[in-house]
Amino acid sequence: MRSSTFILLCTVVAAFVFAAIRWVGNDYLFVAGYVVLQFIVLATAWNILGGYTGYVNFGSAAFFALGAYSSIFFNKAFPLPVPLLIVIGGVVSGIVGLGMGYLTLRLRGAFFAIGTLALAIVLQTLVTNWRYVGGARGAYVIRPGEIEFLGPYSQYLFLLMLALAVIALSIARGIERSQLGYGFATIRDDELAAEASGVPTLRLKLIATTISGGLMGMAGAPFPYYLGYVQPSAAFGLEYAVNSIAMPMIGGTTSWVGPLIGAILLATLQQWATVTISSELGVLIVGVLLVSFVILAPKGIVGLVEGWRRKKAGS
Amino acid sequence: MRHPGELVDIPYDLLVNALVAGLLLGAFYAAVTVGISISFGILDIVNIAHPGFVILGSYIAYIVNTRLGFDPILVSIAMLPVFYALGAVIYQVYHASFERRGQDSLRGLAFFFGLLFVTEVALVLVFGVDYRYVHAAYIGPSINIGIIDLPLRMLVPCLVSLALIAGLQLFLTKTFIGRAIMAVAQDQLALQLMAASPTRIKRIAFAISIATAAIAGALLIIIQPVEPSVGREYIGRVFAICVLGGLGSIPGTLIGAMMLGILESFTSTFYGPSWAPAVAFGVLLLVIAFRPSGLFGR
Prior knowledge:
Distance between the termini of chain A: 29 Å
Shape of chain B: globular
Number of helices of chain A: 15
Number of strands of chain B: 2
Shape of chain A: globular
Largest sheet of chain B: 2 strands, antiparallel
Oligomer: heterodimer
Strand order of the largest sheet of chain A: 1-4
Structural class of chain B: mainly alpha
Strand content of chain A: under 5%
Number of domains of chain A: 1
Number of strands of chain A: 4
Helix content of chain A: over 70%
Distance between the termini of chain B: 40 Å
Largest sheet of chain A: 2 strands, antiparallel
Number of helices of chain B: 11
Order of helices and strands of chain A: HHHHHEEEHHHHHEHHHHH
Radius of gyration of chain B: 19 Å
């Protein structure tokens, strides 16, 4: 399938999803759906770096929070429309992602992963001590109740996140099928050999960290408008880091389908657990699933399905 | 906020006390880190879940202390076999799922990250997010020597930690198994030729590293009240210290821990405690970026 066809197909599916939820007419579905879509973007973004190049990022929450806090900053300094804030959040997080990319010069494997975790804590401390954006107490954002032509604000945010999800998936699939994707795969499989055979590994890694970080920031930018209130411990929450790793790992890291499946399953499960039991139980399930999948099904759901199909074809 | 230039005006006794507090804190950090020095430094297993096990140790000390009134340190010593067994089981799973399949990097990391998260959330579900603390005779009073103030709450963990470090160093350098553990990091094949199974040696070493978390946990809850997410702050600290100390060197761990302790103590005395968490991670970023082999590295 050509990329333009894929984007068209995604848009049609997205439009269908939006129309279906509107037809059901339950506003809660938009609120819950927003979270699912946000995790689709986060998981896809994580996978562009983690799944394709093999560099584990434990600091997803930092990029997400950077997007959220750049929105808070502009909301106070000079208010801009949300779509523009998403672009700004993406740029800010993309720049930090580029910086993180230079870390890969010195840090491989576990050291890189721990470095990203360190980056997240350092940024959180900076934001906690920055009074202009609310410091430790957090900041409020006044969001309009209605938006013209569309109705409730939650539907507007949902639509924006839906568009972001389509963009993220198209980018991930585009990378997978381009020369860039093959370059990423050589880094994942054997970075030294890739370097030796003339693959520009540093440039490729910088591209991966920038795109991945930028998309995470874009997912975080509308967050203050979604909640109406942001504090550092919420925006930098470990749940974001764990979820953005667990979703691709459980879905399967080798293609764009994996994070999509993982995000839909896990985010829906958590929304359901939050409503029926408690949100802690929801995240506990995610943690347990992550550990069990990593042990028992290292290739995720996509790998399980492929294995099952191959077995069926063989017999 | 103060500026570094004002340091000159800082009273002498404040400076000395910050230094002493840093040394005491550093000694305690060594107890938390020594487990990582064994698992990450010697065995090359990136156990980022270690702080989670430390917090688990804190909560066990808390339960037994509040229910039965036993001393937290004695409780932790009694818990050593349990933590040892837990460590052996975790290593067995890790070995069978990642090490043997040669996938230990990416998935092994996710495995330990998941374990850390599961421990934390499980503790939140059982105990909630309230701060918990223990009771013991040495929590509260302090000894004063001249202008130096030595709170027993810090001094006792410091001494226990030093004993733990000394014991481990003796074990690793003087016993056959200890030397085999040091050897497994260097040459597995040679170890096999000496008729020692590398897997068994690694299992013992990893189990010991988790066992140290029981003691570190008890020390932690003596020093400060504990809630489940406290462990996260320690991820940066332990890896910063471990890398500073030169990965896998026990004396290096102690020195690295002291340095970080002093640095943090000065930061919270002169800039405020809200900046202290960034110190460890900032040091970590600087060290792994510029001196990955540590200050005393091989």
